[in-house]
C-alpha cells in the first residue's frame, strides 16, 4: 500500500491535505457544535481545546502517523476526515477523526467524502479500511453501515474520553474484495443526489 496525501474532489466536496490555511475555518466549524464534542468525541476541538488538538494533529501529520484532510465546501473548510493508523506492511488503514459542521450532516458531504477516501485507499493498495465509532454515536454508526461497512464487534471500555467517560468502541471494516460492490452502491447513492 502506497497511500500518499493528495487533493481528492468530486462534485459535492473537495478534500485537501490539512494545512495552516484551513485552521480558522475549521475552528469555526468545530465551535458550531459544542455538545457533540462533549458527548461523542474522545477529544475536543471546540473552544479552548482547539489549539492543542490542532497541534497534536499537525504533529501526527508531520510524523507520518496521520494523513489529515480538510473538508472544503463552497470554498470554505467545513470539517475534516483523516487516514489514521496507516499500516503499509499490512495494507490497512483507518478512516476517522471525522467532524463536519452541523449543517452538512445528513446530506451528501459524508458519503461524498467517504467515497473519495475509500477510493483513494483501495486504489493505493489497501486490503482493509476500518472505522471506529463511539457506541453511543447512533448517527455515525448508521452512516458507516449505510456506506456498506461491516460491523465487526464492540470493544468494551476501549478508551477514556476527554470528559472522563469510559467509551465502548464499535469496529467496522470494508475489505478490498468488498469494495467494488460498496463503490457501486455509493456511486448510485451520490448520483441520486443530483
From TrEMBL:
<dbReference type="InterPro" id="IPR016181">
    <property type="entry name" value="Acyl_CoA_acyltransferase"/>
</dbReference>
<feature type="domain" description="N-acetyltransferase">
    <location>
        <begin position="24"/>
        <end position="177"/>
    </location>
</feature>
<keyword id="KW-0808">Transferase</keyword>
<protein>
    <submittedName>
        <fullName>N-acetyltransferase</fullName>
    </submittedName>
</protein>
<dbReference type="InterPro" id="IPR000182">
    <property type="entry name" value="GNAT_dom"/>
</dbReference>
<dbReference type="GO" id="GO:0016747">
    <property type="term" value="F:acyltransferase activity, transferring groups other than amino-acyl groups"/>
</dbReference>
<dbReference type="Pfam" id="PF13302">
    <property type="entry name" value="Acetyltransf_3"/>
</dbReference>
Amino acid at each position: 500500500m502506497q497511500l500518499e496525501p493528495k487533493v481528492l474532489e468530486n462534485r459535492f466536496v473537495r478534500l485537501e491535505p490539512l494545512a495552516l490555511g484551513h485552521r480558522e475555518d475549521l475552528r469555526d466549524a468545530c465551535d458550531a457544535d459544542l455538545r457533540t464534542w462533549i458527548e461523542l468525541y474522545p477529544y475536543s476541538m471546540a473552544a479552548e481545546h482547539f489549539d492543542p488538538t490542532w497541534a497534536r494533529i499537525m504533529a501526527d501529520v508531520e510524523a507520518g502517523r496521520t494523513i489529515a484532510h480538510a473538508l472544503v465546501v463552497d470554498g470554505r473548510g467545513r470539517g475534516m476526515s483523516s487516514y489514521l493508523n496507516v499500516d503499509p506492511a499490512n495494507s490497512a488503514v483507518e478512516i476517522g477523526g471525522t467532524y463536519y459542521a452541523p449543517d452538512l450532516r445528513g446530506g451528501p458531504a459524508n458519503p461524498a467524502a467517504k467515497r473519495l477516501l475509500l477510493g483513494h485507499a483501495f486504489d493505493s493498495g489497501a486490503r482493509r479500511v476500518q472505522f471506529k465509532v463511539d457506541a453511543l454515536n447512533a448517527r455515525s454508526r448508521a452512516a458507516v453501515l449505510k456506506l456498506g461497512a461491516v460491523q465487526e464487534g464492540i470493544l468494551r471500555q476501549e478508551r477514556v474520553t476527554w470528559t472522563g467517560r469510559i467509551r465502548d468502541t464499535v469496529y467496522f471494516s470494508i475489505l478490498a474484495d468488498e469494495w467494488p460492490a460498496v463503490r457501486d452502491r455509493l456511486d448510485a447513492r451520490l448520483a441520486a443526489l443530483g
